[in-house]
Amino acid sequence: MIAYIFRRLLLVVPTFFAIIAINFFIIQLAPGGPVDQYIANQAGLGDMNIMQERLGGGASDQVGNQLDTAEANAQYRGGHGLTEEEIAEIEKRFGFDKPIGERFWNMITDYATFNFGESLFRGKGVFELIVERLPVSISLGLWATLIIYLVSIPLGIKKAIKHSGKFDVWTTTVILAASSIPAFLFAVVLVILFAGGSFFDWFPLRGLTSDNWDELSLGGKIVDYFWHMTLPIIASVIGAFAGLTMLTKNLFLDEINRQYVMTARAKGLTEKAILYKHVFRNAMLIIVSGLPATLVGVFFGSSLIIEIIFSLDGLGLLFYETTVQRDYPVIFATLYVFTLVGLLLNILSDVMYMVIDPRIDFESR
């Protein structure tokens, strides 16, 4: 197994490089980059404080003064645009004065040491931005995935045992009805009902913790954390039970009807022993294989709307905002993290295959 894991880790390098390279050149060659957006703001007298915030003080004062002059000139010219020298200065500050191949190589060498540089528009390091937003995404993704699996797998097994019975029928109706409700709509309903909308004010609407977090005891911090996360987690998982529950049920039904189950019954094994010693191990293989996709999807993708509604600053919201702004360092850094985590989770999935069923030996293949 160790040799197999080592080979898979070696394959991560070219796969990872190809994914990053393709996305880099597609995004870089697309129109409407950060330089174009900033020039548009300059010509239209838009937000000038963005670049000033990024540049800060000290060594950037000279360039800041030049940009102030550029703004004044643009205003004086009545918005006719910037000179070529001013545009060249802006491109230099954004790093676009270098060839695209050199920019790509610099990015790869920096990212190899997890040096993500600074945001173009936020005046902070990219790594700092990601670390600030990571607790929200971890909270939503981890708890949502845990709840989905803890509910869906036992429910699917029970539905397989009670197939076509009343329990199976009414639970199918409930989870299918829940899956048809859009997450954002259910989140809005929760806010209206329980977060100071038109009815009850039981839960907070903003942030991951309260303002007095540092003053709370350990128990108080735990209670405060879950108090803030209750509604976002409920909104995240409400429509996610149907797929895994029905998959678990169908897999168990398929395994229950196989010949080895009939043989086990003929040998006098109890239904519980057959179900959890033989059927469970075989049926869980496909479910385990879907765990990485579930983690990546819940952890990074589906939380955007939830973060917006509940005012949570997570990675999903950060990626959306920086994509709109064309903040390339943040875009590529989050893509880097997402891709790396996804590839490593796929390896973990294969390892879990072999742990659950020792008969599977990827190394021999």
UniProtKB/TrEMBL annotation:
Subcellular location field: Cell membrane
**Listed Gene3D superfamilies:** MetI-like
Signal peptide annotation? none
The topology of this chain with respect to the membrane is: Multi-pass membrane protein
Q: What highest taxon heads this organism's lineage?
A: Bacteria
Q: What CDD domains would the database entry show? A: TM_PBP2
Give Gene Ontology CC terms.
plasma membrane
Its chief place of residence is membrane
Which residue ranges traverse the bilayer? 9-30, 136-157, 169-195, 225-248, 285-310, 330-356
Set out the biological process GO terms recorded for this chain's protein: microcin transport; transmembrane transport
One Pfam entry for this protein is BPD_transp_1
The record, for PANTHER family, names: INNER MEMBRANE ABC TRANSPORTER (PTHR30465), INNER MEMBRANE ABC TRANSPORTER PERMEASE PROTEIN YEJB (PTHR30465:SF66)
Similarity section: Belongs to the binding-protein-dependent transport system permease family.
Annotated protein name in UniProt: Microcin ABC transporter permease
Source organism per entry reads Catenovulum maritimum
